Amino acid sequence: MRKMTILGTGFAMATRCFNTCFFLELEDGSFFLTDAGGGNGILRQLEQTDFRWEDCHHMFVTHGHTDHVLGAIWVIRKIADQMNKGKYDGVFHIYCHDVVRDMLLAMTRMTLKKKDFAHVGQDILLHELKDGECADLPQFRLTAFDIRSTKAKQFGYLLEFDDGTRFTCLGDEPFNERNRPYAENADWLLAEAFCRYEDREIFHPYEKNHSTVREASELAEQLGVKNLVLYHTEDRHLAARKREYTNEARQYYHGTVYVPDDLESIAF
Fold it and tell me: Which positions make up the signal peptide (predicted)?
């Protein structure tokens, strides 16, 4: 059985939950990490799960905003430290576009100890992917795609498993129709939903280039996806978020909807 653990569900400035990031635990016991939040809180989040550093050899970083990329520096530092202590075997691979690659190289060069930075390019490898480019990992084929952000360059991805399961991460901005081939008929679709539609005048999602629950749900219905995961939300309704977001989503989407809390796991 595969499992997805959502490490954080909040937007960039969230203080009541962690920034949006997650990992997959795969059938062979390995882990695949996506983004890492905005700081060393990623270490605390991972510590509260069944994540094992020694079994994580692949990571994807969607874009260079602070709430996604800065935690990746801490992941790299932790992996390098594990390598220095003889607790990590093999290579750690990070997949990203060129802008994120350059950011990670610059920041690790400036902030890591020499003995830690020595692993970057040696056994911590940054793989630049271009729009539509594939990478074959042990458990799935990854296809990266440009979400056509109007802000910072950002990639999402499609994972295709041997059993035919299609798992699509759309990033944290509204869907671009040019990416329909990567999301249509997906078994799992991970989409941002900044707030409820009725709260749009309070949280101003459109000004931030985000969607509401309604729009994310209408999209999932149009794309014919089976399971919809909503995250990257405002953080003022956490106690009622699961119930309220789910109720709104079910008005527009007839598949299975998940509105996870931080550290919640979902089998898939």
Answer: none
- Domain extent, residue 162, equals 3-267
For residue 179 the two structure tokens come to: 């990416």
Cα R_g (the chain), whole angstroms:
18
Burial tier of 209 (Cβ tally within 10 Å: 0-12, 13-18, 19+): middle
Cβ distance 212 to 247 under 8 Å? Answer: no
51, 265 contact by CB (below 8 A): no
Q: Residue 109 has which token pair?
A: 């060069």
Q: In this predicted model, what pLDDT tens digit does every residue of 172-201 receive, in sequence order?
A: 999 999 999 999 999 999 999 999 999 999
Asked if 175 and 217 touch (Cβ cutoff 8 Å), the reply is no
Amino acid at 96: C
Total domains present in the chain:
1
| Distance between CA atoms of residues 220 and 191, nearest Å | 9
> pLDDT tens, 40-80?
999 999 999 999 999 999 999 999 999 999 999 999 999 99
